[in-house]
Amino acid sequence: MDRLLARLERRLGRYAVPNLIVYVVAGMAIVWFLTQLRPGTSDRLELTLAGLQRGELWRLFTFLLIPTASGSSMFVFLGLYFTWWVGTTLEQHWGSFRFDLYYLLGALGAIAAALVAGAATNTWIDLSLLLAFATLFPDVSILLFFVLPIRVKWLGVVGAGLMILALVKGDWQDRAGILASMANYILFFGGHWVGVFRERNLAVRQAARREDLRAAAPVFGQRVCAVCGAREANGADIRVCSCEKCGSKPRALCLEHARNH
Fold first, then answer.
1. 133 CB-near residues (< 8 Å, 6+ apart)
2. Which of 35, 84, 110, 126 could, after both became Cys, cross-link 120 (CB 3.0–4.6 A)?
3. Residues 175-226: tens digit of each pLDDT
4. By mean pLDDT, which of 99-108, 119-128, 194-203, 215-224 is the weakest?
């Protein structure tokens, strides 16, 4: 995937939009302000198949500007700030092209979900940003509610848990939106997680093998050469070998037979 992204960036990098998340967050702030003046404004901006069929093509873009945070103005401000911080950090790490592509894939996934299921939101796109951030910077800490320090990886775990819960308990519209909008995360980080699980499984197997060898090895001081019968208790230099010739199992051999077997 990295090589493909590098190839695409060489060819299309000049078309990247720097600071894309700044424009998105600014649009969210404007939409939130308009909804305070005229409730129901967001209804004209949501991504719905019915709206697209009426020719309201602006919905293909404006749904990205609907704030995902709700409640008091303080919560909305914190949500917008967090989205901006996550987005700008990802862009600094990836570069404008890769960040724009990641966000665009999430948006295209949401649009595809709307065409199939009838409607989609930008909620899961924003969550995909959080998951990407938590994957790349798991040990970064933030102050939750300005009081409780918490590592971003735990926010990622909570977000992934909510996504799984929505997949299980939600309707098909929710499921389609989640799966399509998270395609960007799968494409960018699928190889990463495959490698993580492979390394973990390898480490577990190696630890189990070491434990088996340790448990099966003869006790020091009581080892006897399997070839000549020389005993460690009588002063013989006894070694333990588990090579292929020994059947890959621990076998006690005196120094001479250990060298020459």
1. 86, 89, 90, 140, 152, 156
2. 110
3. 887 888 788 888 888 877 677 677 776 666 666 666 655 554 555 557 788 8
4. 215-224
Q: Which domain holds residue 172?
A: 2-196
The number of folded domains in the chain is 2
The residue written with tokens 């909008």 in the block is 181
Backbone angles phi, psi at 35, to 5 degrees: -70, -25
Instruction: Specify if 67 maps to a domain.
Output: yes
Beta carbons of 101 and 5 less than 8 angstroms apart: yes
Average pLDDT over residues 5-17: 84
Across the chain, the runs of DSSP E, i.e. the strands, are 47-48, 119-120, 141-144, 148-151, 238-241, 251-254
Q: CATH no. for residue 127?
A: 1.20.1540
Q: Are 90 and 34 within 8 A, CB to CB?
A: no
Does residue 211 form part of some domain? no
CB proximity list for 128: less than 8 A, separation 6 or greater: 102, 106, 181, 182, 184, 185
- Beta strand ranges found along 156-261 (DSSP E): 238-241, 251-254
Please identify, among 163, 196, 229, the residue that sits at the C-terminal boundary of a domain.
196
